[in-house]
Amino acid sequence: MQVIFKIARHDQNSGSWYQTYTLEVEPGNTILDCLNQIKWEQDGSLAFRKNCRNTICGSCAMRINGRSALACKENVGNEVARLQDLMTKVASSEIEEPAQKAIPEITIAPMGNMPVIRDLVVDMASFWNNLEAVDPYVSTSARKVPEREFLQSPSERSQLDQTGNCILCGACYSECNAREVNPDFVGPHALAKAYRILADSRDAETETRLEKYNEGTKGVWGCTRCFYCNSVCPMDVAPMDQIGKIKGEILERKDAQASRSIRHRKVLVDLVKKGGWVDERKFAVLVLGNYFRDIKGLLELGPVGLRTLLRRKLPFDFEPSQGADQVRSLIESVREKAEDKEHK
Amino acid sequence: MTLKYAYFPGCVAQGACRELYQSTAALTKALGIELVELKKASCCGSGTFKEESRLLEDTVNARNIALAEQLNLPLLTHCSTCQGVIGHVDERLKEAQQNNPAYIEEINGLLQKEGCSPYHGNTTVKHLLWALVGDFGLEELQKRVVLKLSNLKCAAFYGCYLLRAQKSIPFDDPYQPESMENVFRALGATPVYYRGRTQCCGWPLSSYATTESFQMAGKQIQDAIASGADCLVTPCPLCHLNLDSRQPEVEKVIEQKLGLPVLHLPQLVALALGVEPKELGLDRHIVSTRPILEKLGW
Fold it and tell me: Closest approach of chain A CAs to the CA of B38, in angstroms?
């Protein structure tokens, strides 16, 4: 079958441009096979990273048809089917027929959130530095066992299965919405690794690590829960879920006074316990004003509060859910159960 | 046959975005869709319950879903976040029924102890957008249009939870969705494609990392304006809070005037069906919706 590859090119002298290549390929060919074909047969100047060809090394992550993925994992047949499916979705409304392209066109671009060095090759320095920043090594206590190896039971090891699958390809980091606006945020790959270390039965630095990952918006509270990392990860590491688990460990140890991000979570559950629904009049005041203790926080609310009042947007009343009592005791039962499990 | 749903209103539509509650009521009335409001339902947790524990998110939402099951109706949301959370819980519990029945027993044990009806896994959870596209149908919707939105360039703002929280979603590719744009076309409006339409509005950070949150919102709004949008249209009231209610603060952070109106999905559809703007709470937005109404001849 014939396909067109539309590739985002870049070099320091010529700037950025799109270049198209027409190829004769099989549906089972991977995107990486196609890039190799271009490089070997049509244009030796095209630059991209590659190595294992087997979804192991994580070298060939790039944006394929609008999302970060591994070039060696995705194939032409699936990409073309996806594009055609998109077209039928628009066309099936029978409202406006889009121009059908005779030859399918696959778009390839470099990963995001990292500067492009050349073509599809990005500078991953910040990615590696941020990984290093979470201290991604099992602590030394494991190495202080001189007589024999450090034993880990199969069930303890199984805690590391999901996060251990990370191949550090950068797909999550490339799409991370929080990282786009916050240069301090270490990113989903680093925090998934952080959880991998936290969950390791041999590590003895749990409390120090949690303090570190709790800091400002560098660590877990920097995540905006956009789900991109979970969605694009080629290894199902689900970084956002791992970030959530670290938050859970922190929430267990801290009270609402600890920080605004923690208060946000605690107040939400408290208000649901009270009214079934969140009473939004109280939510902002309690989170930002810290139960009327933080005057500066309360003042921050001034402009938005006034605006919403003037527009009659801020509600004057609140109607609790008719199931509020049931929900309250349900939440308490779940919490008791969770505590029981902890003790066991 | 009349379409009928167990309606899950959510917190924001009953709080800081009551115009959404109002416009969903007006739209469904105009289309002859019957809503049975779940008066005993509770907050889905907006992703926060899960940060405390997965069992908390699953149990509270199993209760919500069971309320719809008792009525033998699909559960209808009109918030991307409620949809993503409850829809994903439903997916996860249906999987657990197959491969981890002990977990379902644990949840149903907790529910029954509190006198709640147990989770059976025999209904579906769907967003109003999906109900319009899948159940009502766009051709049918097009027939009901009395005020064609021909002059209007609409930029969709989907909300992360609607696209990427569930393992699979009907109709849409999570990276290149079309269902909002198809609704726009059905109403005679022109869809505007821009990168921000599938990105995050920044709401989850807005209470404690306002600068980052507003930069995120600002980036998406700027992107929509640069692509020629007259307005944003969102199926998520939490996105609406960051994009509309906080737009004046967003402008300060990015040091640029924006003034882009943000409509809730049912407001836009109802306008095309001839419902009066006042009935849709369009006068209660922070960014004036006047320019949109003028374009439509109101």
Answer: 9
